[in-house]
Amino acid sequence: MSNFLGEAAGTASFLTVGELTAYVRASMLQDPLLQDLWVQGEVSQASLSRAGHLFFLLRDESASLKAVVWAPASYRLRPALCEGKQVLVHGRLDVYAAQGIYQLYVDEAVPLGVGLAYLEFERLRRKLEAEGLFDESRKRPLPRFPKRIGVVTSDQGAARRDIEHVLSRRWPLAEVVLVPAFVQGSQAPETIVAALRRVAAAGVDVIILARGGGDAEALSCFNDERVARAIAAMPVPVVTGIGHETDTTIADFVADCRAPTPTAAAALASPDAGQLLGELQHLLVRAHAATMREVGAKSAALEQHWQRLQRFTPLHSVLLAQVSVERLAERLKQLAANSLRGLGEPLQLLRHRLEASNPLAILARGYAVVHRGTCAGPVVRDAATLAVGELVALRLWKGAARAVIAETAPDLRRDTDQDEG
Amino acid sequence: MDKDVPEALSFEQAYLELQGIVEQLERGNLPLEDTLALYERGTALYRRCAALLKDAELRIRQLSADLELSEEHEPKGPEP
Known about the structure:
The complex is a heterodimer. By secondary structure, chain A is α/β, with parallel strands linked by helices. Chain A has helices at 2-11, 17-30, 32-35, 73-77, 112-131, 158-170, 188-201, 225-232, 250-254, 262-268, 273-309, 315-339, 345-364, 412-420; strands at residues 37-48, 54-59, 64-69, 86-96, 101-111, 148-153, 175-180, 206-211, 238-242, 257-259, 369-372, 391-395, 400-404. In chain A, the strands form three sheets. A five-stranded mixed barrel of chain A has the order 1-2-3-5-4. Chain B is elongated. Chain B has a domain at 6-55. In chain B, helix 1 (11-27) packs antiparallel against helix 2 (32-55).
């Protein structure tokens, strides 16, 4: 723009109206303050054009400013821009060259009280953000199984009832330390800070700071710098549940964890007992399955050793070992029967599978069943009942065979029994 | 392995120990006696946790926010 003025000054001592207006407009557009500003004033002479644009004057004791809101924003902002109202409007300043006027092109308008609160909110938010109070790295994880839960909220009111209800349903193992505070009014920030310090001193694992729904004015104490700093200074994690889902306060930004409502805050701060019971049952199922697998593997390994040893060592010591394995397996079965009662399907299946697997597998491992005479004959359990030269049938994993007894050793099993006794 | 009786453990202690036992069992390679002893301990821990969850009742203690009062002061309502 400097060459614009240079040209004009260098060649002539006057400007056209258009040139001057363009120059004024250009200076206005260059000024960042004028392109993004909040203005306070009283609304007057508001009128809606046929095209839906809203024209009005913004006034105070000493001056007035023309302002316009284009459609469709005008429809949204019209209620705030009633005649005689004190407002804060946001927009940019520009020149309307055809009429030689400057005016404010408004894109936001709020009642003065709300507007001041909003500006203060933004100022504090930026300040604390710059200090790093909202950093993700400051957020601490919530304890999984809190023993003592601190609650700061109104003595009366639904928030307290909701929190107690949720905690007693989800996590009744906890002790709740409740410190009431005013959550509305000018004293609220002080009592909230005092209550937070008090509850922290009681040695809680986590703190819930909550308030039921309310209008912006009611929630303003949670936008107080003292409250924000007190939350940041808490030695344990803080969960906020303030207002409804759409409300966000400075306290929410500073908190380690933000929930949309008091109920949700209580749920975030506590594990769910019902779900935990399910997890515990699942752990037990896993313990059971792993134990079964281990016992199965051990007896299979023993079986292999036995196969190899039977050629070289006295049989009865191996039988002894096998008996002790059977005793362990019996004990496991006992334990399983005691502990798994009522646990439902998966465990029953596992148990049945284990029980079913041994008798089936045993022939495959090289055992044979001895019958007297033919396979239809009685099963032989005692060598003493067999005579040398007697005919027997052997049932194998696959097929059968007939054999003649060459020799018997009837005392082996009885020795074993005596050793046990 | 922790030898405390399960009845003396907090929920968190019992829960974490049970978790450890399951992992130990799933890794395997333990003597059979140890396996069964772990399993037995695991079921006892499970029972401890389940009993705690079922029997618990939320305790609520109310304190005053007034920091000038001593810790022992009777619970009362909010400051005027």
